[in-house]
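Researcher: Let's do a round of design. I'm pasting the structure tokens now; please hold your answer until I've finished.
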């Protein structure tokens, strides 16, 4: 590896970083992380901190999960790559598929379509949901519904169903036919309703109204995160996702659960959908499927959708979609080892216990500091602080102050993530 001085001199000079302005990276060079052990990371200066971001929601098992590293090494030596396009497969991905079928059986999901990551998984689910309706003779069902504040990746489809202007405005016009309803966000919502149960019902009414306005026979799918992540960790009332599922079923609309963050135990349940007692039609996964050690994802597909595709005799079910790295054997081997470790360690139970502790600690901080307007969490290791300049008006804190808080936290032992006025925590 290049030495410390060389790395600092060339930091951000020859690359653009995601989710920031290129000029900002040049003026404020990114922290250079060079090592990771357990739940801690070490920067180029040797400064060690707890990683309260968990990589990017994905390093559930920490940075020292040797079984996953060993599986990657062994697979690289045996078969580093081969395609799973029509006509070929590999042994690692077959083994993984059977494991995932068993793991997701309580969610009613029986097939996997492999991707390179979360954005790919969302794109796949959106496309397959449209195709599902075409196979069934309902070609008019092309629209998508989603939540404001929701995050669904950065492809054109995902950006179109995203509910945050930061990921949309500079790339418009986006995919037509994407419509949004208010999120069950008790701290800020158009209904000025702070009661979670009442707000959930108001949002469900807004969904019903939007379906009636658009026409149910024009809508392909509703996509949602069981707990909104990048939008600021927004857990809905327990009635919300079941209510969405019931409305979708009644109107012939598919339900896509975006579980790129919430699958594999982070909520304290094995999946976010299971957390709320819902069986979706598609589930988008990635991130923790390989503990972040290899770019990989899978869309899990419900049996009722499978039957429509597999029983088609017209040729309409031929899937004209896929990625060079779909079912990559190294990623599949990593996922097999990761899933085995995830189950062995019962990370869902640990996430529930540690998440409750973290949430209680943040609530205690709120009593001490007036700039903490809202604390969100209570469902596994997904927590957020929303910072305000004034609690009465809920005016968001300025960028400079929240940046100073992030920097101070880092210098005193913890890497946290800033998203708008939110400090987000999602540790391993």
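Researcher: That's everything. Go ahead.
Model: Designed sequence:
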């Amino acid at each position: 590896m290049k030495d410390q001085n060389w790395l600092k001199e060339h930091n951000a000079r020859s690359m653009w970083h995601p989710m920031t302005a290129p000029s900002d990276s040049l003026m404020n060079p990114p922290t250079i992380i060079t090592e990771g052990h357990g739940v801690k990371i070490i920067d180029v200066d040797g400064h060690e901190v707890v990683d309260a971001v968990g990589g990017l929601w994905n390093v559930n098992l920490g940075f020292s999960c040797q079984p996953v590293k060993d599986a990657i090494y062994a697979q690289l030596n045996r078969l580093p790559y081969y395609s799973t396009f029509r006509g070929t497969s590999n042994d690692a991905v077959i083994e993984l598929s059977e494991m995932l079928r068993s793991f997701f059986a309580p969610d009613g999901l029986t097939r996997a379509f492999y991707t390179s990551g979360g954005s790919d998984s969302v794109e796949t689910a959106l496309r397959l949901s449209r195709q599902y309706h075409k196979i069934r003779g309902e070609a008019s069902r092309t629209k998508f519904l989603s939540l404001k504040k929701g995050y669904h990746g950065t492809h054109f489809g995902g950006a179109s169903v995203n509910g945050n202007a930061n990921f949309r405005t500079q790339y418009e016009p986006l995919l037509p036919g994407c419509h949004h309803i208010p999120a069950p966000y008790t701290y800020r919502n158009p209904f000025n309703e702070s009661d979670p149960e009442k707000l959930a019902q108001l949002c469900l009414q807004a969904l019903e109204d939007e379906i009636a306005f658009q026409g149910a026979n024009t809508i392909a799918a509703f996509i949602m995160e069981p707990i909104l992540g990048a939008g600021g960790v927004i857990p809905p009332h327990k009635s919300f996702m079941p209510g969405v599922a019931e409305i979708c079923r009644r109107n012939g609309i598919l339900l896509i659960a975006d579980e790129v963050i919430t699958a594999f135990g982070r909520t304290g349940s094995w999946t976010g959908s299971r957390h709320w007692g819902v069986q979706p039609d598609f589930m988008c996964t990635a991130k923790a499927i390989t503990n972040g050690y290899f770019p990989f994802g899978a869309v899990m597909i419900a049996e009722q959708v499978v039957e429509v595709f597999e029983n088609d005799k017209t040729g309409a079910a031929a899937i004209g979609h896929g990625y060079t790295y779909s079912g990559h054997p190294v990623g599949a081997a990593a996922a097999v080892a990761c899933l085995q470790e995830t189950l062995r360690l019962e990370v869902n139970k640990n996430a529930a216990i540690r998440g409750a502790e973290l949430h209680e600690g943040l609530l205690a901080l709120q009593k001490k500091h007036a700039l903490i307007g809202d604390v969100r969490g209570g469902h596994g290791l997904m927590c957020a602080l929303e910072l305000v300049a004034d609690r009465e008006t809920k005016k968001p804190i300025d960028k400079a102050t929240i940046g100073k808080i992030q920097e101070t936290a880092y210098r005193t032992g913890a890497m946290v993530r800033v998203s708008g006025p939110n400090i987000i925590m999602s540790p391993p």
